[in-house]
Amino acid sequence: TDILPLLRKSFIINKPIKNAMIFISGLGHFELNLNGKKVSDHFLDAGLAGVKPADDAVAFNKIIIRPEPVGDVIFATGSYQSSYGLISSEWKKQDHTFELSVEIPVNTTALVCLPASAHAKITENGKVWHNVKYENGHFVIHVGSGKYHFKANE
């Protein structure tokens, strides 16, 4: 099996980078340093893109998409090739908008947790969503398989 897709992550930082170092000590164990300053342990793990199995999942049949933007990162994308198919998460922050695109494979469900303030307007593919559950700084949305594009406008 090709292990490289498991390590592939991308992100954008909106300030000049003079020096970047990534230390990898094993699958899922990372440390990132930008301009000589340690940014975080586990910076590139599931937290940034937010793709992980639910606690009661079997082979990713139940998925949680919970991106956790950190620092000055304004864009992130991550994916996982599960036995059901590709699971992907891509987000970006710009001005007062947080956008999240996800792909959920067939025969699976997902809990999408969209980080935003409680008064944000939530849309999915342009359609306004009302009465969306809000807890711990995230709108919580249950979805089935498919491709979704969510926006939270402050």
How far is the N terminus from the C terminus? 43 Å
Radius of gyration: 16 Å
Q: Which shape, going by the Cα principal axes?
A: globular
Q: How many strands appear in the DSSP assignment?
A: 15
Number of H/I helices: 2
Alpha-beta classification: mainly beta
Percentage of residues assigned to helices: under 10%
Biggest sheet strand line-up: 1-7-8-9-15-11-12
The fraction of residues assigned to DSSP E strands is over 45%
Q: Uncertain regions: pLDDT < 50 for 5+ in a row?
A: 1-7, 41-45
Outline the biggest β-sheet. Answer: 7 strands, antiparallel
Give the SSE order as H and E letters: HEEEEHEEEEEEEEEEE
Could you describe the 3D structure shown?
- With 154 residues, the protein is mainly β.
- The chain is built from 2 helices and 15 strands.
- The N terminus is likely disordered.
